[in-house]
Write a structure and sequence with these properties.
The structure is a single chain. This protein has a four-stranded mixed beta sheet with strand order 2-1-3-4, covered by helices on one side. It has two domains: about 55 residues; about 90 residues, Glutaredoxin. The chain contains seven helices and four strands, in the order ααααβααβββα. It is α+β, with helices and mostly antiparallel strands and about 160 residues long. The protein is elongated and about 50 Å long. It is about 50% helix and about 10% strand. The structure holds FE2/S2 (inorganic) cluster.
């Protein structure tokens, strides 16, 4: 089925003829659709005349852009210096295991969770820090992190 890009057309119209505004165009597009999928980028290229390779290049260069749909719950684990020395990599490993994420996968197959690694959450005094859907969890252990995820998954299951 053809995707309905009506709202996207309005955004494109705003930036039409301004190839130097590619980043704001991509930001607004991601804000609207949640991520920049291949089909979307092809559509943008076709409508704006900006080469698809250029759009793809910008979208992959900036970590702010997401090329895959994100999960319902966003987990951000800090791996900045303060958190790293306090064992953030063990938390990351434990969460990847809990979420059954493989290779470069960051979103679970059921699209419930996306795991992002960030460089500082501005709460170094609470290291190691983890944020789930804007809730900050400080001095977290790998086991406690797994429990938090399991509790959300259970709640989602009972709401399903
Ligand atoms: S290094 Fe983790 S919150 Fe700053």
């Amino acid at each position: 089925m053809e995707k309905d890009f009506t709202q996207l057309d309005a955004i494109i119209a705003k930036y039409q003829g301004k190839p130097e505004m590619l980043i704001p165009l991509l930001q607004e597009t991601q804000h609207l659709l949640g991520y920049l999928g291949k089909e979307t980028m092809r559509y943008l290229a076709q409508k704006t005349g900006i080469p698809a390779a250029e759009i793809y290049g910008v979208a992959t260069f900036y970590s702010h852009f997401s090329l895959e749909p994100k999960g319902k719950h966003i987990i951000k684990v800090c791996d900045g210096t303060a958190c790293h020395v306090r064992g953030s990599s063990k938390i990351i490993d434990a969460l990847r295991k809990e979420l059954a994420l493989e290779g470069k996968q960051i979103t679970t197959d059921d699209r419930l969770f996306t795991l992002e690694i960030v460089s500082c959450l501005g709460a170094c005094g609470l290291a190691p820090v983890l944020v789930i859907d804007e809730h900050v969890h400080g001095q977290i252990s790998p086991e406690a992190a797994q429990k938090l995820i399991a509790a959300i998954a259970k709640e989602e299951e009972s709401n399903a």
